[in-house]
């Protein structure tokens, strides 16, 4: 098994004043590159930046050790500093490969089911965190207003309020609800990279301070992370990877969001990660929208689940979306938490006591219940 562990223990993070000066100089160079709108592998692989990402992950509580058995507390600060110097060199030489993850079943927010959490090694989590930290703010500039999931300050309640306003403005009362079947597991790596290439070009074309150049080496790193331990892998990405939610948004931005918005009679659409909803004029239009969306997704070998959703006239039907019951009452949309959502919350909180990190699992259950992922 590969390891980025230092050979000797007890080393300090900064050995000399000369090294401290060199680190400050590197930091200034990194800031200049960011100011110029350039994201390179050197920025991601900078060992000080990796150490910063490590500290942020550690302060967030984090998960336990990966399959390598190394946790945040396993090494001293000086030892971790040496780890990230080694990891930095590995990244810059394009020799970085993720380690195998440890699999742990945890409660799935909003349902009574469980999902398998892949607990990565600390180093793999740090690389994903570094990638997310540098790319997400720029990718977020590309996303359209109908995209809500995995975006800062854009949660379920804000999406439902937007839907409420759209109903009042347009008089549309028919809601189509569906989601992408096993989205993370069925993404083709080639489609993921293709969508990031498009984002790379679109970000470079933006004017002013919004313009940013993403180096090809960064796209290659995304491919390495997507293919995981099997570099011949062609389908599926790890949902637990820190960057994967943003990667999914980038893919669906080009596969779903842009095409359906550019359609001649596109509906008012709302996408929360892989959960989809469309406001239509009537039921026949709802069927047309479903067919259109299925066609768009099919180009990337994705498909609608066709289960648990449907086409609802909110003036007489109650639709369930992300744990909320939706219905039009007194000429406006009302949304309340369903009884099933309350029952699931109680069940998941009880099960969190048996988890590896009970307090973190309980917090994820509560936040995920309000803002499902």
UniProtKB/TrEMBL annotation:
GO terms for molecular function: RNA-directed DNA polymerase activity. Pfam families: RVT_1 (PF00078). Keywords: Nucleotidyltransferase, RNA-directed DNA polymerase, Transferase. PROSITE patterns: RT_POL. Residues 87-326 form the Reverse transcriptase domain. InterPro entries: DNA/RNA_pol_sf (IPR043502), GrpII_Intron_Splice-Mob/Def (IPR051083), RT_dom (IPR000477). Belongs to the bacterial reverse transcriptase family. This is Reverse transcriptase (RNA-dependent DNA polymerase). It comes from Rubinisphaera italica.
